[in-house]
Amino acid sequence: SKKQAEKAVHQKKEQSKAKCRKARRRHINLVAEFNHRQRKNIWLETHIWHAKRFHMVKKWGYCLGNSPTEKSYRACYRAMTKHCLLQDLSYYCCLELKGKENELLKQLARICNVDTGLTFQEASCLSGRYEGSLNLYRADRYPEDMLGPVTFIWKPRDGSENRQLWIWVHPALKQDILRELKAIFQCSEPEEICITEPVKTSIQEEKQVEVVTSLGNKRKKEDKEGEKAVPVKKIIGDGTRDPLQSYSWIARTTGIAISDRSMEILRYRLIGPLSHSVLTETLKAASVQTV
Prior knowledge:
This protein is an alpha+beta fold. Among the domains are: about 20-70, no CATH class; about 95-190 and about 245-260, Alpha-Beta Plaits, CATH 3.30.70. It has helices spanning about 1-20, 20-25, 30-35, 45-50, 75-80, 100-110, 125, 175-185, 205-215, 275-280; strands at about 40-45, 55-60, 60-70, 85-90, 95-100, 130-135, 145-155, 160-170, 190, 250, 255-260, 270. The chain has a seven-stranded antiparallel β-sheet with strand order 6-7-8-5-11-10-9. Strands 1-3-2 form a three-stranded mixed β-sheet. The radius of gyration is 25 Å and the shape is elongated.
């Protein structure tokens, strides 16, 4: 029996050595590990691709690719001038405004000026056909107290007087601009109760977790009390917003709603002469059925 026990231990050691060091050190649940590493700085959806090829920096509550680890400057320049280069701008914050068009334009006119160029009322932008860019100022303070540059796009008209506007701002300017928008529209009441409990993973993801833990009983994750670990949870919020804060506000008098859509809408920039070709080959028009 003693020999059998020694033999079992010896076989166990040989089995553990069979795996390479990278496999032995791999976390049993990568999603849980990645969520744990995003406690302070949120990752973009392209983070892992960038992390393998770029020097990463932590800015504005995000983890961003700063400079490539290889000498790829010529390749990037070639792509910009002859082909197509894609950049991930998802760290830019999106502020969504909903309400009657005349009410939106009336108050938005207070934070921009025709002397600087385009305004939110520009016909080509108001139709939803083009994206506009302008500088924002504190309400009725132009040419002083500039808040910063933004880009915006209106959702195309659907025959109703209610419109939808997306304003894209740099994360460093987000809090100041959001505060000014809430002030001019008098949006102080939360539109809905903020979600304080992070959303659980889908049933399929939970099943995958169960399979992994059943295969690796030796490294089964347990909490302090020795009980089975809780399911993996997805992160809510972004680098510029506390998950416990409200993310949507409404004005009682006008019904205008402001929502913080940061990290809910991905944003990519395509540069180069083949950008349109790439888009037309990638995106396929959906067949819309009207009843």
